[in-house]
């Protein structure tokens, strides 16, 4: 900044301060360079005599990407007060600032401004407008802007795809991508990363592999961003072998790459520890909260509750609520007797940090209910009711032959509800008779959540022959499972929606593998029971070798 001050002083001494273009360059350096100062740039802007539009744009741009995006809007208001006409470069940064603030009303007013100045058809402005509506969770408006565009670029498609993915409209993103290909637009790296994010959340390994094939066929460089997206997709879809191959072949890795590979090894404690230690001691990358949370996730979902608690206590940084919530959900799975001091301490800590978060209260109420402490569960439920807190209805979906079918908790309107319910009851009663330690679930919610993109692999022929059942819970996610068993003769992918079960990170529910002969008859023969799904795909491959060929 010292050099800039000297340059400014020389300009003043030389009498060149009235040169609008020269002062615009000084303002650009002050507002956008790493060694500049936004506050100095704004004060200088207000003192410059008759600054040109680009000078205002530089300061607006600087604030839009700073920690004070509101200042960008205030500078724009000062610009209009000084009767300076905005350009097509002014509004994109204003929309960026409004997106960062989730300032929907202000953004709409700025949209009126672009119409007034005849810039509503500018593709650059429209792309950022789509991004703004997506950040404000207004996908319908984003789609309207996109549909009315007379000219589109690849960035336009990326903007609407991002809006859909960030607002959980994964099916819409796939439809739009198909439309993009029909319109003969070639996807770029950003497109592939966005789609990988969608396929990861859907648990769609086959589409994720297709994207990987396009990376190879189209000759894309395996950049850090693209490689991380592939590692994340393979890890969350259970294909750890592919995740490891991509990870090893990446020439550059960042903290997010390490997060993806560590989280992918949930349940594999030794491997997770090795990646975590190598990250800092071998590669010199200092762990962040995400990485510490990943290690807690690995320890907790493996049943090492005490070790996970002590790991949190010895962290060099204070654990955030997500980390404590991760451990609490595991306590709901492994703390069957309800007397663990870990569960008690974690509940107290989490409720102190986030006393009004609905997900925390739901987990605590369920933990009480699962061990028969009905009065304590009722008290927590009463607190939720008194505070006006309501749990969002859960959702699960299943992909069959390229179509996605959704099921919602409490919804019995499905045309095959009676048949599915009968099958589910038959399975549940049989497990109660034959599986040691199994009891019909009585809690309203799952004792823990499933993976963000839990992918269950089945072999499910319709004709009477052997098939495998992955039993999750007597609840709406299982209706997706039973639906797939009843109406599909191919691979079934089950995607429970963990976001509405009060859990942030990924944890497995209790699993039991059954072998039966006819989906219409409760005539099952128990073969194997596993208390949890640590390294789900590895378990499947070990128990049923044919699954290794699927992965």
Automatic annotation (TrEMBL):
<dbReference type="Pfam" id="PF20431">
    <property type="entry name" value="E_motif"/>
</dbReference>
<keyword id="KW-0812">Transmembrane</keyword>
<keyword id="KW-0677">Repeat</keyword>
<dbReference type="InterPro" id="IPR011990">
    <property type="entry name" value="TPR-like_helical_dom_sf"/>
</dbReference>
<dbReference type="InterPro" id="IPR046848">
    <property type="entry name" value="E_motif"/>
</dbReference>
<keyword id="KW-0472">Membrane</keyword>
<dbReference type="GO" id="GO:0009451">
    <property type="term" value="P:RNA modification"/>
</dbReference>
<feature type="repeat" description="PPR">
    <location>
        <begin position="153"/>
        <end position="187"/>
    </location>
</feature>
<dbReference type="InterPro" id="IPR046960">
    <property type="entry name" value="PPR_At4g14850-like_plant"/>
</dbReference>
<dbReference type="Pfam" id="PF01535">
    <property type="entry name" value="PPR"/>
</dbReference>
<dbReference type="InterPro" id="IPR002885">
    <property type="entry name" value="PPR_rpt"/>
</dbReference>
<dbReference type="GO" id="GO:0003723">
    <property type="term" value="F:RNA binding"/>
</dbReference>
<protein>
    <recommendedName>
        <fullName>Pentatricopeptide repeat-containing protein</fullName>
    </recommendedName>
</protein>
<keyword id="KW-1133">Transmembrane helix</keyword>
<feature type="transmembrane region" description="Helical">
    <location>
        <begin position="467"/>
        <end position="495"/>
    </location>
</feature>
<feature type="repeat" description="PPR">
    <location>
        <begin position="52"/>
        <end position="86"/>
    </location>
</feature>
